[in-house]
Amino acid sequence: MRRTLLIAMMLAASVVLAGCAQSPHAPGHADQGVGAAPLPHVRLLMREVDEQAAPGSTHLKDRDGATLALREPPFVSTADVASVAVGEDYEGQPVLNLKMTKAAAPRILAATEARIGRRVAFTVGDRVMTVATIRGPFGEAMQVSGLEGAADAQRIYTEITGGTQ
Description:
The chain is mainly β. It has a single domain (4-19, 30-161), classed as Gyrase A, domain 2 (2-Layer Sandwich). The protein contains 2 helices and 11 strands, in the order E-E-E-E-E-E-E-E-H-E-E-E-H. The protein has helices at 105-113, 150-161, and strands at 4-6, 16-17, 44-48, 58-61, 67-70, 76-77, 81-88, 94-100, 119-124, 127-134, 141-145. A 5-stranded mixed beta sheet has the order 2-10-9-3-6, with no helix packed on it. Strands 1-11-8-7 form a 4-stranded antiparallel beta sheet, covered by helices on one side. It has a two-stranded antiparallel sheet with strand order 4-5. It is globular.
């Protein structure tokens, strides 16, 4: 199943990224869970997909085995993520909710504004978790959906945080 990356406030379950101005804790929004910080040794990155595969790009395989060229440097890294939580989207499907640090949010907002309409990859270690097209800017939070079930969401959460939720 292809993973999709969505902002915590998105209503549609499609392969896009978009932002939202409302609070993630407002009634009717996706469950944010309590969350935990990523382990310091875990490498979370978000990079633009380099459609031209220029020299200097990083090459990783997606879940379907296709090779993706990813531009360096990443515009989101582990240090930018304040917390990760397991939750559910509007359709009751499992998701990972990522809250960014206050310091990183403005930089991420600028980076996503500059990448609207472009594909990006979210990776954990050397594994591509999802590839999506940025539909709108975001900075404070994002949501990883399209997971293969609650057990998959929990496995990834444990890999990133070392805990269970």
